[in-house]
TrEMBL record, chain A:
Listed GO MF terms: protein phosphatase regulator activity
HEAT repeat ranges, renumbered to this chain: 87-125, 164-202, 203-241, 242-280, 281-318, 324-362, 363-401, 402-440, 480-518, 519-557, 558-586
Family as reported in the entry's similarity comment: Belongs to the phosphatase 2A regulatory subunit A family.
Listed PROSITE patterns: HEAT_REPEAT
Origin: domain of life: Eukaryota
Residues in Phosphatase PP2A regulatory subunit A/Splicing factor 3B subunit 1-like HEAT repeat domain copies: 274-355
Classification via SUPFAM superfamilies: ARM repeat (SSF48371)
Keywords: Repeat
Domain Phosphatase 2A Regulatory Subunit A helical as annotated: residue spans: 87-268
Matches recorded under Pfam families: HEAT, PPP2R1A-like_HEAT, VPS15-like_hel
Protein's name in the database: Protein phosphatase 2, regulatory subunit A, beta b
Cellular component GO terms, alphabetical: cytosol; nucleus; protein phosphatase type 2A complex
Gene3D superfamilies found in the cross-reference section: Leucine-rich Repeat Variant
Species the sequence originates in: Oryzias sinensis (Chinese medaka)
UniProtKB/TrEMBL annotation, chain B:
GO cellular component entries: cytosol; nucleus; protein phosphatase type 2A complex
Domain of life: Eukaryota
Parts forming coiled coils: none
Any one GO molecular-function label of the UniProt entry: protein phosphatase activator activity
Comp. bias regions, Low complexity: 473-486
Lineage, top ranks: Eukaryota, Metazoa, Chordata, Craniata, Vertebrata
GO BP terms in the entry: signal transduction
Chain intervals for the UniProt region annotation (Disordered): 1-51, 464-514
Name listed for the protein in its UniProt record: Serine/threonine protein phosphatase 2A regulatory subunit
Length: 586, 514
């Protein structure tokens, strides 16, 4: 019962607050007054429910989560920024609960309402709360405190600032790894609000300590902080203050830390600048690409393109050719498919960076090798990025290898693979041109229409529509329409229905002439089908193609058929026929 | 994960990989340690003379040499290289195990650093990433440690070392320190059950021999559990750590320290919320019961704690919870039972009415337990009113005949305990249900009003004068009624005929769907 009650509160609170922020309710004075009256009631309910909770009637985590979230929107409801501090006590207790999501939400709300405190209130009410949390007994409150330092630091006096820095230092060397993790994850954010001199004097030592923590879960968070810290320091300090730690992280004995370095590589690269990149990050990146753990290699492989793009332009090509490309070549034949497919998703991007000649000489063999990879995901990733290569060398270079790869994917045993390749068909068709398409790919596209998985047939239908949009109605009339209509006589009712689905998709692109003269007769004929599913799809199709037809055909041909279907013995056929009739009338 | 070029024919049929096929592929897999560039050049080992063939004066020196030799690590993922050296190391390790377990006086002070160094070098390593990110320990085969032929012997050696009668904790504590323990604890996350089993015994020995490390070990286990519960939800060695704790709790002195009580309430109880509870529930329940046997006054907070984290959607877990409750009730003191009987039996009454017959059955089995039966009988006037409604209803409504039969027996037992009360409840049952129905209607009405309130469809004035006061009224009503509070939320979306018709069309399997 109290759950419902609480829900009612959130219900009201969320809708009111939502409208408030859009300002919809402030139309005139009467409405404003009514609104305040209502708010008063809501606050009243809210506080009574808060007390219910406080006195342990109900403490379901889901409810607490909603409560923590809503409290962040309550500033207006408690009387505006002047009184916002009265939201602190409930949020403080929510910030100490065990359940992580509740706690995080409470912290999020606290961060939000901290902005609404005046500087004085911040020191009188908010900062003491942060201190209490930071020196709490149980790890939960200390964890929550970590997220609050950075929001109040910029707006308090320098004595209070010193205290906050001290608290943060203490939490960075907390006994509990959970707290150290929380502190490490907020280190970058805190560094950003600190004065430059304290970044050097405080943050660097904390960073170094966290980056050599005994727990790898703490160390890897320091890597994330490294990005923010490096951006805050002047270039000349990076070498001495940040790089030793970063080098150590890139060679950490735990793969999780190395993975994090690989994952953040582009950000790190931007943060440390081009000189350090050339001297330090290039060898580090090479090592990550050769790491003994596939997870790390895959993360690094994902960054190959971005890393190369961001290399300093003056000797970018030389660095790529001598240092990066050899590693990339090895990854093409990696033992792990995730590594290969990560690489395949970015490798094509290198061609724009290296230009036509290098692409043909060095990259093309790699693309071709990946197109023949045993793993479908690798092949797909290559095919899905063909446009990059097309711009540089033209797709013709690849078409001979492309075809067998496409055919094999098109017949893959896993329908998701088939689905993926269908989705690239319009793109491929556009790049390969209509002749190549007719010659090699058309049969595939038609074969998908009779696939035994519905999702494939559906995608194939949609694909035909896109092809017609690309190649035009005349092409459709000559190549695909006859085949599609031929399926209307198939003994399998699923195939007959596919004809209808295709007609639905194609009628608009094909235009009135083809629709009326070729498609409509087939649809009308199918209204006598013995399977009800086909019949009600006839009704749906007629509704769909109706707008494309001329009014004469509608009146003389479509209407009688629909009227007949509306008296069908099957309930669903009747329903859809009636629906079509009323839709076409309006 | 491996992409096999020759697909089994079963895959061609439906396009989906069968789980059994995937499993079969996985079973063949084993994994190397994530040793990161530990050695630059390959080292070839050459055999040393046997310890037993060496004069005792030279044995110590040779022992050290052998320990050093065993610090060389080999790549077991590559099964063809270093075969000779691998065999030499294996033989040497075997010899070392025998040496520390049968010879006396071999553990001189100067040997400790080399011994621990050899152990650390071999077993402490960053565990590799899991081969299967959604590894389900109940379904899937674990990935086995590929260097086990050596590692097993090193663990064996460590165990024999600790168990050697000459072993001196006062000397060893310089090497087997907090850092050592921390690294040992990290290894409990290993997917290989053989390794975790060794670790369990070893950590238990260390806990027994190093008094100075006990508090530290407990605290670190605490941290591992908290991280498991609130952060990662993944740790392979929870069951093993709980097993160690089970025997540790047994030895706690009375009265229990606040630290231990906190561990029970803030770690063991929340552990029940884990998704993978099935993997360690037996050990967890054992720990909880151990605590209650030590200090019966903890019964109330524990039962209330369990009720708070009671599973809402997972029937398997609910069955486990009921099992644990029965274990607790087996040792409960009657005075403690009285303190929790009401909330507890409210939950049990929900369980017996559960649509999942295993849950209902497990709860009804309580009535086969003589001790529980005697507790119920003693408090029948409190318990019968709580249970009656559910039992009476399912005796008429439950779909499963076994449950209905069980319920009849339970009702009969309860009736025999207090016949008058039973008759009273039977006669007031109908009126009670009527009242409930009415309340439910009122609640529905309220929700409808609230929905209007939310959408702002109705004029503001009207809303304001009606909705708010009724929220409060209804709340007062609701406070008296704890059951059925989910039902009013159900009537949100009703599928239309159209939806039904469309789903027919998507059906793919039969030649004619109609």
């Amino acid at each position: 019962s109290s759950q419902q009650h609480q829900e009612a509160v959130h219900h009201c609170a969320s809708s009111r607050c939502g409208e408030d922020s859009h300002g919809k309710l402030y139309k005139n004075d009467t409405e404003t007054q009514l609104y305040s009256l209502k708010m008063y009631s809501i606050i009243h309910i809210f506080y009574s429910s808060y007390h219910l909770w406080k006195y342990t009637i109900y403490d379901e985590d889901e409810v607490l989560l909603a409560l923590a979230e809503q409290l962040g929107n309550f500033t207006m409801l408690v009387g505006g920024p002047e009184y916002v501090h009265c939201l602190l006590p409930p949020l403080e207790s929510l910030a100490t609960v065990e359940e992580t999501v509740v706690r995080d939400k409470a912290v999020e709300s606290l961060r939000k309402i901290s902005q609404e405190h005046s500087p004085v209130d911040l020191e009188v009410h908010f900062e003491p709360l942060v201190k209490r949390l930071a020196s709490g007994d149980w790890f939960t409150s200390r964890t929550s405190a970590c997220g609050l330092f950075s929001v109040c630091y910029p707006r308090v006096s320098s004595t209070v600032k010193a205290e906050i820095r001290q608290h943060f230092r203490t939490l960075c060397s907390d006994d509990t790894p959970m707290v150290r993790r929380a502190a490490a994850s907020k280190l970058g954010e805190f560094a950003k609000v600190l004065e430059p001199e304290y970044v050097k004097s405080d943050i660097i030592s904390l960073f170094t300590a966290l980056a050599s923590d005994e727990q790898d879960s703490v160390r890897l968070l320091a890597v994330e902080a490294c990005v923010s810290i490096a951006t805050l320091l002047p270039q000349e300090d990076l070498e001495t203050l940040v790089m030793p730690t970063l080098r150590q992280a890139a060679e950490d004995k735990s793969w999780r830390v190395r993975y994090m370095v690989a994952d953040k590589f582009s950000e790190l690269q931007k943060a440390v600048g081009s000189e350090i990149t050339k001297n330090d990050l290039v060898p580090a990146f090479q090592n990550l690409l050769k790491d003994c753990e596939a997870e790390v290699r895959a993360a690094a492989a994902n960054k190959v393109k971005e890393f190369c793009e961001n290399l300093p332009e003056d000797n970018r090509e030389q660095i790529i050719m001598t240092h990066i490309l050899p590693c990339v070549k090895e990854l093409v034949s990696d033992t792990n498919q995730h590594v290969k497919s990560a690489l395949a998703s970015v490798i094509m991007g290198l061609s724009t960076i290296l230009g036509k000649d290098n692409t043909i000489e060095h990259l093309l063999p790699l693309f071709l090798a990946q197109l023949k990879d045993e793993c479908p995901e690798v092949r797909l990733n290559i095919i899905s990025n063909l446009d990059c290569v097309n711009e540089v060398i033209g797709i013709r270079q690849l078409s001979q290898s492309l075809l067998p790869a496409i055919v094999e994917l098109a017949e893959d045993a896993k329908w998701r693979v088939r689905l993926a390749i269908i989705e690239y068909m319009p793109l491929l068709a556009g790049q390969l041109g209509v002749e190549f398409f007719d010659e090699k790919l058309n049969t595939l596209c038609m074969a998908w229409l009779i696939d035994h998985v519905y999702a494939i047939r559906e995608a194939a239908t949609c694909n035909l529509m896109k092809l017609v949009e690309k190649f035009g109605a005349e092409w459709a009339q000559n190549t695909i329409v006859p085949k599609v209509l031929g399926m209307a006589n198939d003994p399998n009712y699923l195939h007959r229905m596919t004809t209808l689905f295709c007609i639905n998709a194609l009628s608009e692109a094909c235009g009135q002439e083809i629709t009326t003269k070729q498609m409509l007769p087939v649809v009308l004929k199918m209204s006598n089908d013995q399977v009800a599913n086909v019949r009600f799809n006839v009704a749906k199709s007629l509704q769909k193609i109706g707008p494309v037809l001329d009014s004469n055909a509608l009146q003389t041909e479509v209407k009688p058929v629909l009227e007949k279907l509306a008296t069908d013995s099957d309930m669903d056929v009747k329903y859809f026929a009636q629906e079509a009739i009323s839709a076409l009338q309006s | 994960m491996r992409c096999s070029s020759s697909k089994p024919t079963s895959e061609k049929v439906d396009g989906f990989t069968r789980k059994s096929v995937r499993k079969a592929q996985r079973q063949r897999k084993s994994q190397g340690s994530s040793q990161y560039r530990t050695q630059s050049a390959p080292v070839e080992l050459s055999p040393l003379p046997q310890l037993k063939d060496t004069p005792s004066a030279e044995q110590q020196e040779l022992f050290m040499q052998k320990l050093n030799q065993c610090c060389v690590l080999f790549d077991f993922l590559d099964s063809v290289t270093d075969l000779k050296s691998k065999e030499i190391k294996r033989a040497t390790l075997n010899e070392l195990v025998e040496y520390v377990s049968t010879y006396r006086g071999v553990l001189v002070e100067s040997a400790y650093p080399d011994i621990t160094n050899m152990i650390c070098t071999n077993i402490f390593r960053a565990l590799p990433p899991s081969d299967n990110p959604d590894f389900d320990p109940e379904e899937d085969e674990p990935t086995l440690e590929v260097s086990w032929p050596h590692m097993q012997l090193v663990y064996e050696f460590l165990l024999r070392f600790l168990e050697n009668p000459d072993f001196q904790p006062s000397i060893a504590k310089r090497h087997i320190d907090q850092k050592f323990v921390l690294q040992l604890l990290e290894l409990f996350d290993s997917e290989d059950p053989r390794e975790r089993d060794f670790l369990k015994t070893i950590l238990h020995r260390i806990y027994g021999k190093f008094l100075g490390l006990r508090a530290f070990i407990r605290k670190q286990i605490n941290n591992i559990f908290l991280q498991f519960i609130y952060e990662t939800e993944h740790f392979n060695g929870v069951a093993e750590l709980l097993e160690i704790l089970g025997s540790i709790i047994n030895g706690f002195a009375l009265p229990l320290k606040a630290e231990h009580k906190q561990f029970l309430m803030k770690v063991l109880i929340p552990l029940h919320t884990a998704k993978s509870l099935a993997l360690f529930h037996a050990q967890l329940a054992y720990c909880v019961v151990q605590f209650l046997e030590k200090d019966p006054t903890l019964t109330e907070p524990v039962i209330r704690g369990l009720l708070k984290v009671w599973p809402k959607t997972c029937s398997q877990k609910e069955v486990m919870f009921l099992g644990e409750i029965e274990e607790i009730l087996d040792v409960v003191e009657p005075t403690q039972f009285k303190k929790v009987q009401e909330p507890l039996f409210k939950q049990i009454s929900k369980c017996v009415a559960n649509a999942h017959f295993q849950v209902a059955e497990r709860a009804l089995y309580f009535w086969n337990n003589d001790y529980i039966l005697s507790l119920i009988e003693e408090n029948i006037d409190k318990i019968l009113p709580i249970m009656f409604g559910s039992l009476y209803r399912i005796s008429k409504e439950h779909w499963n005949p076994t449950i209905v039969a069980l319920v009849y027996n339970v009702l009969k037992t309860l009736m025999e305990m207090n016949c008058t009360l039973f008759d009273e409840l039977t006669s007031s049952y109908k009126a009670e249900r009527q009242r409930e129905k009415k309340k439910e209607q009122e609640r529905d009405e309220l929700w409808k009003k609230l929905d209007q309130f939310k959408l702002g469809n109705a004029p503001l004035v009207q809303n304001n004068s009606h909705s708010i006061p009724s929220v409060q009224n209804n709340n007062n009503n609701n406070n008296n009624n704890n059951s059925n509070n989910n039902e009013s939320q159900e009537a949100t979306s009703t599928p239309s005929d159209k939806d039904l018709a469309v789903t027919v069309e998507v059906e793919d399997s039969t030649p004619c769907a109609k």
